[in-house]
Design a protein that fits this description.
The chain is of the alpha/beta class. The chain has 3 domains: 170 residues, 3-Layer(aba) Sandwich (Molybdenum Cofactor Biosythetic Enzyme, Chain A), CATH 3.40.980; 77 residues, Alpha-Beta Plaits; 152 residues, Maf protein, CATH 3.90.950.20. Helix content is 39%, strand content 25%. It contains 14 helices and 17 strands. It has a 6-stranded mixed β-sheet with strand order 2-1-3-8-7-6, sandwiched between helices. The chain has a 5-stranded mixed β-sheet with strand order 14-13-15-16-17. Helix 2 packs parallel to helix 6, helix 3 packs across helix 4 and helix 9 packs parallel to helix 14.
């Protein structure tokens, strides 16, 4: 079944707020047999939203709206849906009672304008919002389904997991969409495209490549009557891709390098520390995105200058002899921070993340060193040189993957 997502909010079009709701829904819908074909952003205008809904109504089985369910004048999603299905809005006593209960538990009476959030139409079922005041709508009419969800991501995600996903699974029992994503690092998009040329494309299953901040992804999508049937279609393709990209695949699906490293460090009861230059603290920040990372992350040093590298323990003679951007200095940074912070493993990163050469070294040139009590080594990486943020992100990914191979003893 096909779906469209219509995200409402003038703030989205002004760039003040990122539309994370659409990407969240697009990632969840395949698991219940629905494939997103189009995403539309619309301002807080009932006429514009009505037009977008009418277009979606003509071509899609499911329509998801996000936002516009609040109590103010610019919350127009309910009005637009009512116009599209040509039904009159009324106050639902059950929703009204639930809303009053929310405000009572907060120790206040419900403002009059919040009555707007208790509105329904005859073809709609109210979806209670247990962590906010904006109920959702589930509308079924003429073989189409409109699902209106609140704008705050936390509320939308809670409603998806507890109200929407179970209901869709009950309705759509004969069709599933399964995906498998293989994540590669160290290859350009063009190289991946060339290597996988004989596999890419197709209709069902379909395999495509996607350039991401953590490398190039290969995603296979299969539509089938059951999950087992879908996996039977995906498995041969995954096997071939793994054979083609041996040594370059670092993870699958939603897996991240910092999760993988964190899990293995916790498993072995070990610790790590970092010293980074061109990444400016991004490595330490990424590591600490994981709850409980204090159990294995001792700390990090951002040695953005040569003086700070020296002050942190890197031998100035090594810097002078090989240059601050070199495999020797990267390795020294990893070893020094490991010893200084008394950790089991250390990572060192030095390179050029800017868009211009530094001392004849090209942008995107990054040396990463890893160190343990038994072994230390470094490696040169050449990342795309036209995007500072991408250089930093891929440096962090590569550093974490190098540490993982050191811990597991799989380095080449």
């Amino acid at each position: 079944m096909d779906a469209e997502i219509i995200a409402t909010g003038t703030e989205l079009l002004l760039g003040e707020t990122l539309d994370t709701n659409s990407s969240y829904l697009a990632s969840k819908l395949p698991s219940v047999g629905i494939r997103v074909r189009k995403v539309t952003l619309v301002d807080d205008n009932v006429k514009n939203l009505k037009e977008a809904l009418e277009r979606a109504w003509e071509r899609s089985d499911f329509i998801f709206t996000t936002g516009g369910l609040g109590p103010t004048k610019d919350d127009v999603t309910r009005d637009a849906i009512a116009k599209v299905v040509r039904e009159k809005i009324f106050i639902d006593e059950e929703l009204l009672s639930a809303l009053k209960g929310i405000f009572k538990r907060r120790g206040s009476s419900m403002p009059t304008h919040n009555m707007k959030q208790a509105e329904l139409i005859p073809s709609a079922i109210g979806l209670l919002n247990k962590i906010g005041t904006a109920p959702g709508w589930w509308v079924e009419k003429d073989g189409r389904t409109i699902i209106a969800l609140p704008g705050p991501p936390r509320e939308l995600q809670h409603m998806w997991e507890n109200n929407v996903q179970p209901r869709i699974q009950n309705v759509n029992t004969n069709h599933v969409v399964v995906t498998r994503t293989l994540k590669t690092i160290g290859l350009s998009e063009a190289t991946v495209d060339e290597m996988a040329n004989g596999i890419l494309g197709g209709s069902n299953p379909y395999t495509g490549i996607y350039a991401k901040s953590d490398g190039i992804h290969l995603r296979t999508i299969a539509n089938a009557a059951s999950t087992n049937d879908a996996w039977a279609m995906i498995n041969p393709i995954e096997k071939n891709l793994r054979k083609i990209f041996t040594g370059y695949i670092w993870g699958i699906d939603s897996e991240t390098p910092h999760q993988r490293v964190g899990e293995i460090l916790q498993k072995y009861g070990m610790t790590m520390a970092t010293m980074e230059s061109c990444t400016g603290g991004l490595l330490a920040s990424t590591i600490t995105d994981i709850p409980g990372s204090s159990q294995y992350f001792k700390g990090g040093i951002v040695s953005y200058t040569n003086d700070l590298k020296t002050a942190s323990g890197v031998d100035p003679l090594v810097i002078k002899k090989y240059g601050p951007i070199s495999e020797q200095v990267a390795e020294a940074m990893a070893t020094v921070v490991r010893i200084r912070l008394d950790s089991d493993f250390g990572i060192g990163i030095t390179g050029v993340a800017g868009l211009t050469s530094l001392e004849s070294i090209k942008p995107g040139t990054v040396y990463i060193g890893v160190s343990s009590r038994k072994r230390q080594y470094s490696r040169l990486h050449n990342f795309p040189s036209n995007d500072r943020k991408l250089i930093k992100t891929r440096s962090v990914v590569s550093a974490l993957l190098m540490l993982h191979e050191l811990i597991e003893g799989t380095e080449g």
